[in-house]
């Protein structure tokens, strides 16, 4: 009896229930986003909401089958309101395209990729090098022994740092320009309060005609599952980002040409992104193609990637010309970034 009454009421009121439920859901999302905007948090629930915020609108897709029914005009309006709200909070950002036609000066192409060591025998790196012919290559999670076997690549890039004694674990820089100086960013006293392991490699390249450029290959620690019994704990990562920022500031102050690239393990919706990008130009926002999202599930990345966590930043005295995010499946969850610059 009670069951029959429930289904009778549901049959008559189901669209009202969907409308009210959807409105309440949108109100919760909007309120949460307003709270995070007015009082941004580095950790906790609101910080996670900021990271996943665009995906919180995905449940709206469950309404689509009902939109084609009769007498659902109000539900359609509510659905449209949700789409408008999504676009207001997260307007489409597809990059500004190439600026090559207006640029002058020496052109330099750089590639960065979280390579994942298991790719060492698959030939992916050689393929992308042959296709894009970058002048500078920065890798994270690389396998040094695999690079050691690639004698043709080492001949094409005669200036290189990739062996464990010279670089932070898994990092590599290969260059067609001479490396005149290099170093690792770490605590002066060797403590591990901030840097659990060395994670930043810098090299100074001789561009010719008395000009140099500093290339910084960075791979801060992930905020996910890197602290015991804590799924999302960004404190150590954020501290590493701040230390990296402090390292860069005097270089920028004295007018160094600077290219910062790598897997930063943070999204552009987190506070740490603003710490990292201060006084630098985000190449994706200047000339990037597509949305720039660079991390997801390997085999689906060509269709959709989840987050933007790989970056190329430049100092104001370098002109970004173009940035492509190549998400062809190559054995890594990360896409490849190929940027072109005028110096």
From TrEMBL:
Residue ranges occupied by any Endonuclease/exonuclease/phosphatase domain in the UniProt entry: 111-323
Alphabetized UniProt keyword annotations: Membrane, Transmembrane, Transmembrane helix
Record bears the keyword Cell inner membrane: no
Key word Nucleus present: no
InterPro entries recorded: Endo/exonu/phosph_ase_sf (IPR036691), Endo/exonuclease/phosphatase (IPR005135), GPI-anchor_lipid_remodeler (IPR051916)
Membrane-crossing residue ranges in chain numbering: 15-33, 45-68, 74-91
PANTHER family: CALCOFLUOR WHITE HYPERSENSITIVE PROTEIN PRECURSOR, PGAP2-INTERACTING PROTEIN
Protein name in the entry: Endonuclease/exonuclease/phosphatase domain-containing protein
């Amino acid at each position: 009896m009670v069951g029959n009454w429930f289904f009778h009421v549901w049959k008559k009121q189901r669209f009202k229930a969907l409308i009210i439920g959807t409105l309440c859901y949108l109100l919760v999302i909007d309120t949460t986003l307003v709270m995070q905007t007015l009082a941004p948090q580095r950790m906790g629930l609101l910080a996670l909401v900021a990271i996943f915020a665009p995906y919180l609108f995905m449940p709206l897709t469950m309404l689509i089958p009902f939109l084609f029914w009769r007498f659902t005009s109000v539900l359609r309006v509510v659905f449209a309101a949700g789409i408008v709200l999504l676009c207001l909070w997260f307007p489409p950002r597809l990059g500004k395209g190439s600026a090559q036609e207006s640029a002058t000066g020496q052109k330099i192409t750089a590639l960065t990729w979280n390579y994942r060591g298991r790719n060492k025998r698959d030939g992916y790196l050689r393929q992308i090098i042959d296709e894009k012919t970058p002048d500078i290559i920065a890798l994270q999670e690389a396998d040094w022994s695999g690079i050691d076997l690639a004698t043709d690549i080492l001949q094409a890039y005669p200036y290189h740092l990739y062996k464990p004694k010279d670089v932070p674990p898994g990092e590599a820089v290969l260059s067609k320009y001479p490396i005149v100086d290099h170093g690792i960013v770490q605590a002066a006293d060797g403590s591990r309060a901030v840097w659990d392991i060395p994670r930043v490699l810098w090299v100074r390249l001789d561009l010719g005609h008395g000009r140099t450029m500093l290339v910084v290959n960075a791979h801060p620690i992930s905020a996910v599952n890197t602290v015991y019994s804590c799924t999302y704990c960004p404190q150590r990562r954020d501290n590493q980002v701040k230390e990296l920022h402090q390292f860069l500031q005097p270089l920028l102050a004295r007018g160094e040409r600077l290219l910062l690239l790598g897997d930063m393990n943070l999204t552009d919706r987190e506070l740490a992104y603003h710490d990292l990008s201060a006084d630098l130009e985000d190449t994706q926002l200047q000339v990037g193609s597509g949305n720039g999202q660079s991390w997801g599930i390997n085999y689906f990345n060509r269709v959709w990637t989840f987050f933007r966590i790989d970056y190329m930043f430049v100092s104001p005295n370098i002109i970004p010309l173009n940035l492509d995010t190549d998400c062809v499946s190559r054995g890594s969850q990360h896409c490849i970034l190929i940027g072109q610059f005028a110096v």
